[in-house]
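Action item from last week, closing it out:
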Amino acid sequence: MPNKKINLYLFQFNFSYGNDVYLPYSIGTLWAYAKTIEWIAKNYENKGFIFMRKDPQKIVDKLENPRIAAFSTYVWNWQMSIEVARRIKEIYPQCLIIFGGPQVPDQIDGFFERYPFIDITVHGEGEIAFSEILIGYLDKNYGNIQAATINKGKGDMTKFAKKAMIPNINILPSPYLNHVFDDILKLPYSFQAIWETNRGCPYGCAYCDWGFSNSKKIRAFDDKRLQAEIEWFGNNKISFILGADSNFGILPRDLDLANRLAQKKAETKGYPGKYRVSYAKNSYDRVLQIAKILHSQKLDKGISLSVQSMDDNTLKIIKRQNIKIESLANYLKKYQMEGIPTYTELILGLPGETYESFKEGINKLLIAGVHNSLAIYNCAVLPNALLNQPNYKKEHAIKTITVPIFLNHSIPGNDPIQEYEEIVIGTKTLTTANWIRQYIFAWITQTCHTLNLTQPIAIYFNYEHSLGYSNFYEELLEFAKHNPNSLLGKELVFTANKVEAVLKGASWDIILPEFSNISWATDEASYLRISENFDEFYVELSSFIEKLIKKYNLKIDTKIVEDLINYQKAVIVKWDKAGDKVLKLNYPLHHFYMAKLIGEKYDFNKGKYLLKITDDLKFNGDKERYSREIIWWGRKGGKMVYQNIEETKIK
């Protein structure tokens, strides 16, 4: 037995947002379990959890004779982990370097040639395997650890590792309740937490590494532990909880957990602050009940009703089943009536998708009522997802590029190491040129509809003149192309150039110093720039509507067109001037708009109407507050339009 304890360091590099910092949950679970083993507790000293992204050399310089360095990795911290591990090995060649987490590939052909400084990789759930490595360290006996691959220094090796799956996860102590983070909590940060109530996912979506794991069965942590963790979150003033479940709401007891979260926030008058999680795909009634509970205490950050694609062929290829569109529309209406924000996600570039099917998918979702909540993302290729398997890639002719990872609303250039992600830019059914078209169509839909520059107008043309949303926004794109000096035309040119630059290796980051020093997505950046001249934008939009009416030979009262523009311009939130306004209209546009948002009928009768808008926000020229509250924090709740609006019929 050694006379001196073995120095152990655990690394899990997380991004911070201002003063908000995630507790390093993954490495916390490793140590929480390991220290319950008496031999490990007696012979090892955990010298610290290293989780802040700082200069790699400064991190390494502060280490004290590290004998073991273990890293938990995912796409957002891979390069940082690699660089720190490499430098540790250079200075401390005898230090055992262990890598685990979802970013470690299961098929490791060539892995140790690329990363010779890594000694052991752990695959799957790592708590038991990590402890077995610690036990085997003294005599270098790791042969019986099935979930680990050992770099024997003999060049390249090939292995499909047997991923660890712990049948009884209740043998794992909670790092929160086991005092693992006590010292970290003394640091001057606002802490956020990862929370697991269960492990496993019964689905097999091709783009997701949950779905391609060997953990199909849902394994639940016991209720007593979870209830105690909720107490811990509240008592330790955790500002935000990110749920690590793949399907929260899939178990009946999740209702009880939601109730206790809400009760604890009420008791503490604020903590935990928010809870966000991936909700169950096929438990919509229970999820609705959970949403009501969380919303009652403002715990929710929007309820996800994600579909990823609306194309049947694509869904078959990616091994996903969606809720029927009629049912989705029904649930959206229920959420809208409860005042609970929702968001629905689509993924760009999925195999099987075409430009036309993607465009039609957006049209279906907008018809179903996904107006304020549509979010469209690039298709990222995760190392252990089916999408990344060689045969699958070959079958669907998947073309990818590696680009700097985009972390929306972070501070670009503030990170010592650039992280990267692999995204799909072409498939058998989608050329790269059409992928660009997909991106541009997604951009204009989100900029103008989701962020509400033209939403009531598009809704009017859809319901009153049967002009599909996809047609409306494709026509708006054509207008922007043929008017490159218009505000929207300039934004189209900027966005198209940004996409081309990304395809050549540039980052997605867009900084608008006049609004803030954080990064914005292309749609958000366009909206913010247009917000500097709404008057000009709506003059240009009037010209577009005139051409639209002429092209489709629509019979529309000119007063309606005038009302539509005046109403849309009046209800959009302003930062440069007060939004208080009294407006006379010839048609009840506000009642019509509110009814259509929840899929209800409304008689569109001509008359005399008075619209009164009260600006409760009073931005008074504060661009930074406006960009954060309206675009960053408010986009999922439809906060781009004023909330205090009255419309009355007058004589």
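Closing note: The chain has a mean pLDDT of 93.
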